[in-house]
Amino acid sequence: MIKEKLKLAKKEEVAANVYKFTLEGSHIPPRCSPGRFLHVQAGDGRAMLLRRPISISAADDQTCVIIFRASGAGTEAIASVRVGDTIDVFGPLGSGFPLLDDGTALLVGGGVGVPPLHFLAEELVKNGIRVKSVIGFRSAEDVFLADELRQYGEVEVTTEDGTYGTKGYVTDAALMNSEFDTFYACGPKAMLHPLQENIEAPGYVSLEERMGCGIGACFACVCDKKDGGYVKICSDGPVFEKGVVQL
Amino acid sequence: MSRLKTKLPGLDMKNPVMPASGCFAFGAEFADLYDLSVLGAAAVKAATPEPRRGNPVPRVAETDSGMLNAIGLQNPGAKAIREEHLGHCGKAGIPVLANIAGTSIDDYCEAAAVMAAAQEVGALELNISCPNVKEGGIQFGNDPQLAAEVTRAVCEVSAKPVYVKLSPNTGDIAAIATSVEKAGASGLSMINTLIGMRLDTETGRPVLANKTGGLSGPAVKPVAIRMIYEVSQRTDLPIIGMGGISSVEDIIDFLSAGASAVAVGTANFQNPFICPELIGELDEWLEKRQISHVSELTGRSWKSCSVPLS
């Protein structure tokens, strides 16, 4: 875990208000793996104190890619950083997705839940796993990463208004699938809930929540467990085995 | 760094800087990031007699230069804290300031007795100011008589010195301070968070599930400075100052206002390395101005013979 200023090497708007940042630094955070996140400072940190958790969508020794939606003052401030300037990041934090050794995986993502699945698909395919992705968005202008995911396997895209791919919700499309050994899902709780409850195969869900410290010290992002206890999403997760957390 | 050595009742510290209660848990997470032995002390998360689940989420909401929290004193209970969670501070050899909370005088005494018996604990921090729990102690922080009553009861069961953590959500904070001083407190820590609320502009509803929360961060610093300035002139108790500290200049201001030590809270969330960084910067600040000991700064804002700095 490090706190580091990384250089914004490349910036693309990959969908409406969704930005892809390629970050570079002499110390790219080691141990970036699918499902983990960077805690990113917004602006100089004086007006907006809390960092924003943004999942890692790709990483190697020199670069790290994050994709996020500019949807409030904090993420808008991050989105306004210019190429060549630096961004203060802390991480990588959290636990990642456990990687399958063999078999077939179904990846299910909604909106800004899709980026970590891109990193995951890449790593799973390296392990020789067959991957199918089902990703959902509101509308055609919101779709991103569909082409990138296609290099790792079959991709089905849903949009709520039907302007791209299948019309409907990503959960309904995902639940039509049965030929897989493990599922991996990232998105809002409302999306994860039907998957956790209805898929019989083992799987993992990655949760989103407002966070404070990002390391488990402030107890801002707790979530009830099904067995009565609780987890801290930032440090015990954000990835949990199916059936562990109450969604 | 001998110019930083600070000795307060129960707290023999290398320097006057500690993480504030609620922003450091029990140190395990930070021990992964830096050597805890550099800290002056550690104010750990509030202990209640029984485990507490805390409030529903969302529990935090950002505000301009501040944040609201309504965690709700989530903790595993005093006994579990004493037995399972103090090891990191103990191993580092730093004194623990054990925050205790409750809903009744009996609760406070029970938590106090458990925590005061821990070897790692140097002193207790009596939390009569948590704004986020129904009957979470703030009623004691609002009334000089009740504050004195709970302080007296806790001092009786505690073999360790007791610091009372004061609430800014009160009319006359100096009256509370003088009242707990008479009741046997060894020190004060101030200030706890200010009660606030943020609304979702679209829906008009409060953002926090608890509706209200405690405001912390740089936004509250002027309130803390004013209260420490006032209280430090009215009591002889040493004050641990807190409220939005995020730079060495903030620390100097708190000391000048009348604090003898400081606690860093919300700033740990943005920069988990802030405490060690500030300790280094504080030493440099004093060295540059050839101040032989940090205690010379305490109360400069009001002391008639205050040391002019070159």
Automatic annotation (TrEMBL), chain A:
SUPFAM superfamilies: Ferredoxin reductase-like, C-terminal NADP-linked domain, Riboflavin synthase domain-like. Binds 1 [2Fe-2S] cluster per subunit. It comes from Alkalicoccus luteus. FAD binds at residues 52-55, 67-69, 74-75. The lineage of its organism: Bacteria, Bacillati, Bacillota, Bacilli, Bacillales. Belongs to the PyrK family. It comes from the Bacteria. Responsible for channeling the electrons from the oxidation of dihydroorotate from the FMN redox center in the PyrD type B subunit to the ultimate electron acceptor NAD(+). InterPro entries: Cyt_c3_hydrogenase_gsu, Dihydroorotate_DH_ele_sf, Dihydroorotate_DH_Fe-S-bd, Dihydroorotate_DHASE_ETsu, FAD-bd_FR_type, FNR_nucleotide-bd, OxRdtase_FAD/NAD-bd, PyrK_electron_transfer. This is Dihydroorotate dehydrogenase B (NAD(+)), electron transfer subunit. Coiled coil: none annotated. [2Fe-2S] cluster binds at residues 213, 218, 221, 234. Heterotetramer of 2 PyrK and 2 PyrD type B subunits. One of its GO terms (biological process) is 'de novo' UMP biosynthetic process.
Automatic annotation (TrEMBL), chain B:
Its EC number is 1.3.-.-. Pathway: Pyrimidine metabolism; UMP biosynthesis via de novo pathway; orotate from (S)-dihydroorotate (NAD(+) route): step 1/1. GO terms for cellular component: cytoplasm. It is found in: Cytoplasm. Substrate binds at residues 45, 69-73, 127, 192-193. The keyword Chloroplast does not apply. One of its GO terms (biological process) is 'de novo' pyrimidine nucleobase biosynthetic process. It comes from the Bacteria. It catalyses: (S)-dihydroorotate + fumarate = orotate + succinate; (S)-dihydroorotate + A = orotate + AH2; (S)-dihydroorotate + NAD(+) = orotate + NADH + H(+). Its cofactor is FMN. FMN binds at residues 21, 45-46, 99, 127, 165, 191, 217, 243-244, 265-266. HAMAP family: DHO_dh_type1. Homodimer. Belongs to the dihydroorotate dehydrogenase family. Type 1 subfamily. PANTHER family: DIHYDROOROTATE DEHYDROGENASE (FUMARATE) (PTHR48109:SF1), DIHYDROOROTATE DEHYDROGENASE (QUINONE), MITOCHONDRIAL-RELATED (PTHR48109). This is Dihydroorotate dehydrogenase. It comes from Alkalicoccus luteus.
